[in-house]
Specification:
The chain is α/β, with parallel strands linked by helices. The chain has 18 helices and twelve strands. The strands form two sheets. An eight-stranded mixed β-sheet has the order 5-2-1-6-7-8-11-12, with helices on both faces. Strands 4-3-10-9 form a four-stranded mixed β-sheet.
Length: 384
Amino acid sequence: MLAPIQPSRKSRFRQKTAKQLLPRIAVLGAGHGGQGMAGHLGLMGCEVSLYNRSADRIAPFAMAKSIELTGQIEGFGALEQVTTDMESAIKDAALIMVVVPANGHAAIARACAPYLRDGQIVVLHPGRTGGALEFFNIIREHGCTANVIISEASTLIYACRMLNPAKVHVFGIKNVIPVAAIPSYRTPEVINKLNIIYPQFVPGDNVLKTSLDNIGAIFHPALTILNAGRIESTHGEFDFYMDGATPAVARVLETMDMERVAVAAALGIRAMTAREWLYIAYDAAGRTLYEAMQANIGYKGITAPPTTLMRYITEDVPMSLVPMSSLGHHLNVPTPMIDNMIHLASVIHDTDYWAEGRTVETMGLAELSVKQIRKLVLEGTLDV
């Protein structure tokens, strides 16, 4: 029997050097995406600290300090630390990955603010609409003066679901994800650091662009709200994007989309339309949004959510539609259809999503002109 081949001294040096180049990473949030990211980063050899506010969520793997991955990624990812202590979690991290629902970004920002230090990079996965701006504003309000880069990804890189505590199935990894920083000229620093481990991240123009190219804000809430009766009577047993997007429903979506694009234009941003996005992402074309959605074979077979009480409303309305509406009002751009969806969602859930949502006030933009907002985004200065 052949003896096992031992790596040469030179090979061992290369392996050690490569590992030394990997950034130490804090993953904040232990839900589906947070566990998937933490496990994958651990599998790639990074030193990972996983933080979660609730001790109950992390108790199953706090002792083992590992997460099992199945699907497109297979293996056990080791975790250097599992903790509910924010200071300890981010203390030595070069990259701080915030992987919580957008509703939780403000709480994470407040918890991080006292402990952030010069040179650290915060990435929201994803920011939804205005996530990086809100995070940037909150840490400054809470006394953080550290030279920190706040950035946001346009979407979560993983499609994954927890099977059991500390076991995550990865259905897929997205190919290209734009990321933008505040200030925008520091985006290359973020991309260079991320690309050490994730080649999928590419530079976005700026955080206004990543925020207002939020296509999910158009598709998800309105489709759920306008199909509420069918969802509740069938528990989601119908094709969400095909059967749910009738010609009448699609016209509502297209009107909302026009309002989103108009808000972006008022800020000097050329936002991608929903029809353009369908063509670029899925090669699905049509003269109307309805035709383009029906032509998208990628939507076939995707069933509706079983209830309206889910993130398509609870997250996308306050963290995507409300900030779009708030920006519209601030810039004197009418958003009546978006406003109607927010009002309907508030009635359906007996919740004031206007009060819960992101606004120009929480993003630190209420007193700023368009010129000043763009200066803040491009230069990262509050001296406007």
